[in-house]
Write a structure and sequence with these properties.
With about 240 residues, the chain is an alpha/beta fold. It is built from six helices and twelve strands. The chain folds into three domains: about 70 residues, no CATH class; about 40 residues, no CATH class; about 110 residues, Zincin-like, CATH 3.30.2010. Helix 4 crosses helix 6. The relative contact order is 0.10. This is M48 family peptidase.
Length: about 240
Amino acid sequence: MIDWLRRDARAAPEIVLGERRLPIVVLRHPRARRMVLRLAPEGDAVRVTLPRWGRTAEAVEFAQARREWLAAQLDALPRAAPVEAGGTLAYRGAELAIAWSPEASRRPALSEGAIAIGGPEKHLPLRLRRWLEGEALRLMTADLAEFCAAAGVPVPALRLSRAKRRWGSCASDGTVRINWRLIMAPDAVRRSVVAHEVAHLLHFDHGPAFKAALARIYDGDLPAADRWLKDRGRTLYAAFG
């Protein structure tokens, strides 16, 4: 039992979409007034949110009646391109060619439009992910210090997040968490999320004062960054899940 959300405790029913069989996860929300159907961001489940008094059978019927829409949503998800020699790696909004050679250094090195890396080929995805996480921590640390200076607040602790549905968060103790996958997005998008969390150090809600603070400390186009995340945010999960 979660404070405001309860998941049906029984075994999840399933739905067949093309060649895939996905569980239907039923969630009950105390403030829900109608059923809401969503495909999970990773495409591995169908979620139906309904009022506390809603019946699981109705949720399943609701999902089954919208199979065509769900199938279209599933087809629209970005497909995972394998992280492999000769492939590409998203980094700061660009695609880097993965130049692997067994004789090269295991430490990734950037060159013009490519990332050179050596070592065992089977460990290539893991090493590149660790490199991306290191780059994320380096750049987000600088972003955080810059925006905190602009906001006039002390620099809090920074942690990398691996959340599936949130790009950033600010805890009650001031700790800021930013999704490491944002290192693959354009700089302006990553920076907008860091600035958003810094603004929460001043105002914990999303009221007018928060929006004014965010507009003051962020030096980019907030609507454009928000649109990028809405339209392309899921693509950041394609390579590493």
